[in-house]
Amino acid sequence: EIWEEKGLMGSSRTAVRSYQHRPVLRFDGEAFRLKRTGELVRALLVLRLCAWPPLVTHGLTLLSWSRRLLGSRLSGALLRASVYGQFVAGETTAEVQDSVQRLQGLGLRPLLAVPIEEEPGTDRGGEAWYEGNLKAMLHCVDLSGLGGNGQGPHAFSSPQDTHERLTRAAEEAERKGLGFGVKLVRGAYLESERALARERGTADPTQPDYEATSRSYSRCLELMLGHVCRRGSQCQLMVASHNEESVHQAVKRMSELGIPLDGPVCFGQLLGMCDHVSLALGQAGYAIYKSIPYGALDEVIPYLLRRAQENRSVLQGARREQGLLSQELLRRLSRSP
Ligand SMILES: Cc1cc2nc3c(=O)[nH]c(=O)nc-3n(C[C@H](O)[C@H](O)[C@H](O)COP(=O)(O)OP(=O)(O)OC[C@H]3O[C@@H](n4cnc5c(N)ncnc54)[C@H](O)[C@@H]3O)c2cc1C
Q1: How far is the centre of ligand 1, averaged over its atoms, from the C-alpha of 189 (Å)?
Q2: Of all helices (H) and strands (E), which one includes residue 147?
């Protein structure tokens, strides 16, 4: 009822249900019980492999060696059973549909990611490049029909804003009565952004260190949640982060501000990463989207390597997730309840 008065998003039934049953969130791996044993084993092996820095740095070179040594068929099969299977929804419409259904069965929502790669600052230009991108986007729109029932994939897009720019933009949208949507991400393209700034002789656009980045993320999160609280569904936020602290902060403040679980705030994480957090959020009734890339092996590998480089710290820090996966596998082996 409180939310109805404030005009927050969602039907009054959703609001009341969320208000009455706000669950305590624990990212303790309990949600892994929902996964098949094969999926747990693959996740454990792939996450271990991805925490090995040379694999992420020299991925393409290693791939061409493996093709030369094993042949492209065997090396392709190994990739499909491991990295591709873990992080990619599939190649054909049927494969993507199957992945989407599996996610939905676990309480997760699909967010189709078009695997297009471009270095920041490069000017590729040319009709063929734009035509290629347009084709990929239209294919994504076609696939977006897979979700059905209004809970299907959404396309979000937003720049990586600093607190100041975000404040100005949000206030301007509020003044003009415009809807405002933000996907809040923490850092990206760190090395290339710095190299580009050096080359151009401009100021380094990145934060001085990780702690400063996290402080900025936390302030931006607080700012956006305040706007959501005031403006309801006129303001939408995706907390796109694998960071448990950021997710905890969002969940805690949503509760304090009376923002419904499945309303104008949602969470976003990448397919195959941080599943202990995604599953716990989904099971608790929060709107959690998994970003799912799709496409042929050769097209998706450069995209995956880029994501792995951006998420190097996440992958190296995935020890906790690996521990939770091992714990669940051991529990199944010992058949404890
Ligand atoms: C659903 C989803 C959608 C995404 N969409 C985009 C997108 O559209 N565009 C995009 O660029 N990225 C996108 N990302 C990637 C995102 O920007 C992060 O790279 C990634 O999520 C890792 O951050 P984290 O909060 O999950 O993890 P954490 O481990 O908490 O943070 C790691 C991040 O901090 C950054 N960082 C560390 N030090 C600094 C510094 N000094 N200055 C600046 N940054 C620093 C790193 O580059 C790394 O990205 C997306 C991520 C998700 C989950």
Answers
A1: 8
A2: none
**Residue 237's closest CA among 256, 250, 248?**
250
Q: Which two tokens stand for residue 59?
A: 């991925």
Residue 215 lies in a domain: yes
Give the DSSP H or E segment for 270.
strand 265-270
- Concatenated DSSP letters for 254-295? HHHHT--TTSSEEEEEETTSSHHHHHHHHHHT--EEEEEE-S
Q: Please give the DSSP secondary-structure letter assigned to residue 156.
A: -
Q: Which domain holds residue 261?
A: 1-27+156-286
**CA-proximal residue: ligand 1, atom 3 (nearest):** 240
Residue 72, token pair as written in the block: 């492209």
How far away, in angstroms, is 213 Cα from ligand 1 center?
A: 10
Structural domains of the chain, count = 1
Radius of gyration of the chain (CA): 21
Give, for 307, the enclosing helix (H) or strand (E): helix 297-310
Tens-digit pLDDT profile for residues 194-245: 899 899 998 888 888 889 999 999 999 999 999 999 999 999 999 999 999 9
pTM (2 decimals)? 0.84
- Ligand 1 lined by 153 (C-beta under 6 Å): no
> Alpha-carbon distance 284 to 281, whole Å?
5
Question: What is the C-alpha to C-alpha distance for residues 231 and 228, in angstroms, rounded to an integer?
Answer: 5
